[in-house]
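Lecture 7, part B: from sequences to assemblies.

Below are the input chains for today's worked example.
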Amino acid sequence: MAGTTVPIRLGRERSDRLASSAYFLRRNPRMIVGGLIVIAWILAAVFAPFVAPYDPIKVNVIDSLLAPNAQHWLGTDDLGRDVLSRVIWGSRVSLSVGLISVSIGLLVGTSLGLAAGYLGGKFDLFVMRGIDALLAFPALILAIGITSALGPQIQNAMIAIGIVAIPAYARLTRGQVLAVRAREFIVAARTIGASPLRIVLRHILPNVMNALIVQATLSTAFAILAEAALSFLGLGPQPPDPSWGQDINYSQRYLPNLKWWMSVGPGIAIFTAVFAFNFLGDALRDALDPRLRRSGT
Amino acid sequence: MIPVALLVTIGVFALARLSPVDPVLVFAGEERDPAMLEAIRHQLGLDEPLPVQYVAWLSHAVQGDLGRSFQNKQRVTEAIIERLPATFELGLAALLISVTFALVIGILSAVKRNSLLDLVSTSVTLMGVSFPSFFLGIVLILLFAYVIPGRIFPPGGYVPITQDVAENLRRLVLPAATLATASLALNLRQVRSSLLEVFGHEYMRTARAKGLREGAVIIRHALKNALIPVVTLIGIQVGAIIEGAVITETIFSWPGVGRLAVQAIPSHDYPVVQGVVLVSALSFMLSTLFVDVLYAWLDPRISYDTASA
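Predicted structure of the full complex, as structure tokens:
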């Protein structure tokens, strides 16, 4: 990007903002596509009791293993449970794991990064060695290790994925703090007697906000994928509760009988949710954080 | 690196102690006599204070002794070493597929930027990143083992290469393709974007200006520089082979290290889980270190002495 000049438009009216937002969205179709799919999944998760046509755990042996049809759009499993209803209810698990684990990573990681960057010295050294140790584990192995130690439950999967997400936020925030710590506006804030907490929260944090939003969106995609992987390995919610990863694992035993719909429903669900968050994250990165923009991609 | 490695070992040790399940009960099986349980606790060293337990565990671990499996009492190190060849075979085959496709498609896509091929490859890349490997594995099993007539590839299982080379390779295709897809997306993206970055440099214009053929410009001038970040990425993926293999080995009943850990989880066989986590973290760390060294060697502009200042 070096060497290009960006024309600066001056004197834009407030009323132009709406028009420019519309223009921006038109220029960024990825944000619209990603955003709409994300919103659709959030709505499905929130209104699952109203949207899902059947009870996701009610056994109905008469209707077992039905191929997709007018009554059961995505077919039924071996216990006659409606696959579509299980997919819709499963979105609650995936999205809540995404939300909570990303919140854990964001809160802990950002706080550690802010404190380490601002305080420096031994505290910084200690925290960053800890972060390096976390990064030394391959992400999924660490999540599996933590969840298997704590026990296979959805809460533990959230904690495990949250811990795995901490380093990215901590490093991002610390880097930003180090970059702005010596800048004039921080020195000025300190000169007028602002407390360290105020400086960190009011002056430094807003500078890293855009990068954090991008990171949070992308790590939600990772969290959904990781939750599905943990559930697939039996480390997420336990049966009969619906969960995408676990349902795919369960469907594996019916592959020789060609009951493909039992796998396809949850598989497409994971794919669309992860894809949407990745798509949205990439678009947000281009829009909010030009420094992180990869050239050419 | 050493302080980090020590922290990693503390983390791995702590993982096993986090478990709400008493390891003595797991080890004892059906035995519930309190005196016997106490004896087992003493034998396992679990009645010592935690720091003492950690030092004992670490001193054994550095000598290659990761304890014994609670289930079949096999040495963990032995169990891991037994399964490493299968994991490496799968991981390296996947890497080979991934790197070959990434290079060919990545170069074409960068050279013909904004062409149909570029558009298709970048879209497929993004989809590949989001496609869960276990779902891909299942789709491949469904297609090649059941739907397509002739059952080209089996749905899973492993035959050692020493026993039957052809059968070994036939069973390798689907798991390797599954495992390759996720890293293919990352590698392809990296090849394409670093090539595009290099294309903007002035030495490229110079190379073209002195009349070199386009092929020579790309291979001799662009790729040489553009591949440095790709090498880094591949190095990290070599270190993460065990991680990638966990899911793929489970789907395809591939008897590797990942499956060993997954099978140990339900029975709370924590020495095995702990051993696999430790080995995969250390191999990940070593490959990162190796990549750092390789990076400095490949690109003489990088010097860690000045970078750390």
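Note for the exam: The mean pLDDT of chain A is 88. Keep this in mind when comparing with the next example.
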